[in-house]
Amino acid sequence: MDTKTEAGDRIERSVVIAAPRSRVWRLITDAEAFGHWFGADLKGQVFAVGQRTQGPITIPGYTHILFDVIVERLEPESVFSWRWHPYAVDPKVDYSREERTVVTWTLQDAPGGGTLVKTVESGFDKVPPGRRLEAFRMNSGGWDGQLENIRKHAETA
After folding, report:
1. Number of structural domains the chain divides into
2. Residue 82 pLDDT > 60
């Protein structure tokens, strides 16, 4: 079961992964493991509440971008969230004055087995109007790809 929802200021995606919740949780919350499937070099980094985690994106065409998040919540095997600047790809732009969107990962046992992963990115209404629609459009497609990445990685790891 994969679902997609988009409404105003939020993008919602969900996927059932044929893997135990503990494995999926580790792949999402261990920074180095996360970077491997997400496409960021996060070697030596950790995700911790209140901490900023950064590393260069490793996806061809996007290597000039810095993965840069501030972790808000880490509730073991349940909820993980961070704030970031969505689609912050122009090296000439200082995004630091913009409000960040919130990305929340929620894990649950899936009916019939496996792990239900829900990802919600909200707060696009706070992104400056001049880049809001593009950021929303690009991240919408990006979350489709990233959920497929985590599914493939978790099911073959």
Report:
1. 1
2. yes
pLDDT of the residue at 4: 61
- HEC states along the chain? CEEEEEECCEEEEEEEECCCHHHHHHHHHCHHHHHHHHCECCCCCCCCCCCEEEEEECCCCCCCCEEEEEEEEEECCCEEEEEECCCCCCCCCCHHHCCCEEEEEEEEECCCCCEEEEEEEECHHHCCHHHHHHHHHHHHHHHHHHHHHHHHHHHHC
User: For position 43, which CATH number holds?
Assistant: 3.30.530.20
Does this model's pTM top 0.90? My answer is yes
In the predicted structure, residue 2 carries a pLDDT above the cut 80: no
Query: The domain containing residue 141 runs over which residues?
Result: 2-156
